[in-house]
Amino acid sequence: MRTIFLADAHLKAPTDRNYRLLLHFLDSLKGNTETLFIMGDLFDFWLGFPSHPFRQYDPVLEALLDLTRNGCRIVYFEGNHDFHLGTIFSKHLAAEIHRGPAVVTVQGKRLLLCHGDQINRADHGYRLLRFLLHNRLVASAVRHFPPSLALKVKDRLQHTSRAGYQAKQNRWNYREIIRAFARSAQQQGYDGLVTGHFHLAFREELPPQPFTVLSLGDWMEQLAYGEMRNGELQLRIYRPKLPSSAHGPQGPDNT
Fold this sequence. Notes:
alpha/beta
């Protein structure tokens, strides 16, 4: 059995290519995947409103439910676009939910897992925004918010994300920030780091003792994901066998 790590799909509409390919990918995991770790920002925006206003995500929710029915465990790390996940994930999908980084033993390896949005400690503006949006008072108040407020929050987050992403890339070397964070995790005795958020797809081994850094890239454009078999972390790219215009692409490329 294998373990899958997936981050940053930023799903919007079921007609989008990355959405359609994700449905085929999830279907391919049935019966051969022990755990699916969703490492944040699966959706372009999600708040767990009791009324469930985000009906465009029903196909992927049904695909995840089908996975659980086939014995796959789902572990969800909240991102900066999907948080306060609500009862659909905690009860309906019986997902294990993490609001921040966590140490998880996977196939005998102690891995530090996180979405990654807290790694860059120098991004003070975002850290303040995250504190305001992710605190438990907001979580408890979500059930009283009208869904229209969710759309306003979504628009604000998307505008901030688009406006600041390129500027932040120019300001900070994200690969080195991830490496520095990984070295700190290595010094604490962990065997590896798996992170999303930065949309950088790379895998590295840090000396001296074996330590794997796996930055997941994204499913939004790169169709990248992580896979663990026999205790070894690998970076994979999903390559559809049919043209992107077709409605039946399938099949991972294990390269």
